[in-house]
């Protein structure tokens, strides 16, 4: 799914990360833990989604995605939802959950918010 989105927040999250919030209801509704977006040819994990409010957030490392720092609130951007990797959390079929560091935090946070 490709959509035009507005950036509604873009804040620092510690010395190495930034959080960017997009206003786009369709993507917010379809987003699942483990999904990513493609913006400006760069993939970002979705960290949190609020379907009723119509927004979703991504976490990124400033060192790895320096061009994203140029975007400001109010900017309109085109992005795509990438749904190839999602977590399945079926209580009847237990499986291990591997937790990573760095950008692995965003999908783990999203998963924890949906459980």
Gyration radius over CA = 14 Å
Order of helices and strands: EEHEEEEH
Secondary structure tally: strands = 6
State the secondary-structure class: mainly beta
CATH architecture: Beta Barrel
Sheet with the most strands: spatial strand order: 1-2-5-4-3-6
Rounded mean pLDDT is 85
Shape: globular
Question: Keyphrases for this structure?
Answer:
115 residues; mainly beta; Elongation Factor Tu (Ef-tu), domain 3; 2 helices; 6 strands; 14% helix; globular
Please write out the topology.
Layout: E1 2-13, E2 17-23, H1 25-30, E3 36-39, E4 42-50, E5 55-61, E6 76-82, H2 105-114
Antiparallel strand pairs: 1-2, 1-6, 2-5, 3-4, 3-6, 4-5
Briefly say what this structure is:
Helix content is 14%, strand content 40%. It has two helices and six strands. The longest helix has 10 residues, at 105-114.
Could you characterize what this model shows?
There is one protein chain. This protein has helices spanning 25-30, 105-114; strands spanning 2-13, 17-23, 36-39, 42-50, 55-61, 76-82. The chain is mostly beta strands and 115 residues long. It has one domain: Elongation Factor Tu (Ef-tu), domain 3 (Beta Barrel). The chain is globular and about 45 Å long. The model has no long low-confidence stretch (mean pLDDT 85).
């Amino acid at each position: 799914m490709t959509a035009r989105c507005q950036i509604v927040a873009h804040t620092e999250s510690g010395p190495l990360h930034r959080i960017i919030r997009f206003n786009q209801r369709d993507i917010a509704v379809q987003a699942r833990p483990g999904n990513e977006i493609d913006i400006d040819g760069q993939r970002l994990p979705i960290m949190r989604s609020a379907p009723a409010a119509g927004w979703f957030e991504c976490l990124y490392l400033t060192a790895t995605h320096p061009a994203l720092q140029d975007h400001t609130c109010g900017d309109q951007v085109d992005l795509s939802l990438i749904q190839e990797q999602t977590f399945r959390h079926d209580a009847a079929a237990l499986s291990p959950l591997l937790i990573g560091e760095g950008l692995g935090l965003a999908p783990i946070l999203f998963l924890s918010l949906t459980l």
